[in-house]
Amino acid sequence: MGEAVSNGDADFVRLEAQKQLDAGADMLDVNGGVAGHEAEYLCWMVNVVQELGDIPICLDSADPAALRQALPLCKRTPMINSITAEPERINALSPLVKEFGTKVIALCLEASGTPKSADDRVATATRLIDQLTGAGIPVERIYVDPCVFPVSTGPEHGPALIDAIGMIKEGFPEVHISCGVSNVSFGLPERKLLNRVFLPMLLAKGMDTAILDPCDSQMMATIAASEALLGIDEFCMSYLEAHREGKLRG
After folding, report:
1. Residue 120, domain member (yes or no)
2. Which among 60, 126, 187, 233 is least surrounded, fewest beta carbons within 10 Å?
């Protein structure tokens, strides 16, 4: 994708976007992070993707200047990915979130480093939520990302994340939880298997948004089945629709 963007290959970008939409993506994460060209490329990608229609977009950038240029181009109110608890970053980005009325992913990272435990994640999430709501951003527009780390680097990473999600949802029922699911399997074989098994665990604790590969049909079937079993999909209507469309077959 980086090469396609650098070369101005709009056909490649449109094709990838359409594939993800056809596979069931509810929002497209658009990242123009090519060094020295982020604002230019982010705006270009937003325009190219929106040639396909009125597409919900997540602007994946921590650059306030790039975001300020890209935000007015979005046909629908977008999401920003992401804010952290680092003072410089939250102070620079929260005014944009408020001004444009966007949703925002609040990543549980402090200036001091990455969280080590469930309690660390909850403490950072609490600070982020307090700061964002204090800046006038409604809690229902906040998507806390408690930071998924590879289980290959520590057996505590999976359980700590799962516990943190439950604790955050208990303390802030109206806040959303978002995770980059595939981070958990980095460095291990059969990554898609680990990702598919991990996702229902997160849904059961309260995660309601995920950055993942919608073109993994088995992952999408896992979501449909999990939401039916957890009562998220009332009367299993989405599950039945997926079945009729042949989307539950391995």
Report:
1. yes
2. 187
What b/e readout covers 25-40, taking b as 16+ CB neighbours within 10 angstroms?
Answer: bebbebbbeeeeebbe
Strands (E) in the chain, as ranges, are: 28-30, 57-60, 79-84, 103-107, 142-145, 176-180, 209-211
Domain harbouring 192, CATH code: 3.20.20.20
Which amino acid, 166? G
**pLDDT, tens only, 118-160:** 999 999 999 999 999 999 999 999 999 999 999 999 999 999 9
Backbone angles phi, psi at 147, to 5 degrees: 75, 105
| 142: β partners | 104
| 48-93 residue pLDDT tens | 999 999 999 999 999 999 999 999 999 999 999 999 999 999 999 9
Whether residue 44 is predicted with pLDDT greater than 90 in this model: the reply is: yes
Contact call for residues 184 and 165 (beta carbons, < 8 A): no
- Reported pTM: 0.95
Tokens of 141: 């527009």
Rounded Cα distance between 8 and 45, Å, is 9
Q: What is the pLDDT of residue 32?
A: 87
Of 207, 96, 226, nearest to 145 by C-alpha is 207
Q: Are the C-beta atoms of residues 150 and 180 closer than 8 Å to each other?
A: no
- Give how many domains the chain has, as a whole number: 1
Helix (H, G, I), strand (E, B) or coil at 187: coil
